[in-house]
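Q: For a teaching handout, I want to show students what a protein-ligand complex looks like in token form. Below are the inputs, and the small molecule is thymidine-5'-diphosphate. Please produce the holo structure.
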Amino acid sequence: MLITIEGIDGCGKSTLTKGLGDALADLSPLFTREPGSTWIGDQVRRGIAEEIDPIAEALLFVADHAAHLAEVIRPALAESRLVISDRYSDSRYAYQQVTLAPYLHDPLLWLRSVHGSWTRQPDRTYLLIIPVEDALERLDGKDGREHFEQGVVLEQVQKNYLLLAEEDPQRFVLVDALQEKEKICSFIAGDIRQLFQSSQ
Ligand code: TYD
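A: Here is the structure, written as tokens, with thymidine-5'-diphosphate included.
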């Protein structure tokens, strides 16, 4: 079963993932992430840091996704494992829709067609929602902000995420990221456990 965790920078995905590691340890989940689960992820990070052409950057994210699926996700799903990915295709649909807007007439349509039929839809996606000001405050302690991590960009990214969730309410679960972190973690861990056990 494939679970994904999404949200804007500073929404608390990393803390949540760590918490899920403890809460779901008995299910031996495979934790993975985009970008960065294969060597292509290193090139993506370089591309982000160098602020390369947005189309080149988008295609690097997609290349990382293809390798991630082939090398990590599909083999684990073939063994019926629980796979939890910190970011996945919805990150492209939410972020690259913003970065590609000046270059393409319909970035979402383009992004969806690039993913084509080879991608694999998550079974459930937890979307952490946080006011952008709070996310930026959390990011303040971090050195070297990526070009995505600006208020205007994150506002649009979050709006895109909410539209994606509206389109697919069966898959998305919206979570208020301002709640206590233990509460968020125990709610999501309980939900994943129930879903995973009912799929066995
Ligand atoms: P991430 O590793 O989640 O951030 P961090 O380095 O802060 O832990 O992702 C790096 C950045 O890349 C983040 O700002 C979101 C962005 N991103 C996209 O724009 N598109 C994508 O498809 C993905 C996976 C990430």
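A: Two things your students might notice: Strands lie at 2-7, 30-33, 83-86, 124-129, 172-176. The chain has a mean pLDDT of 96.
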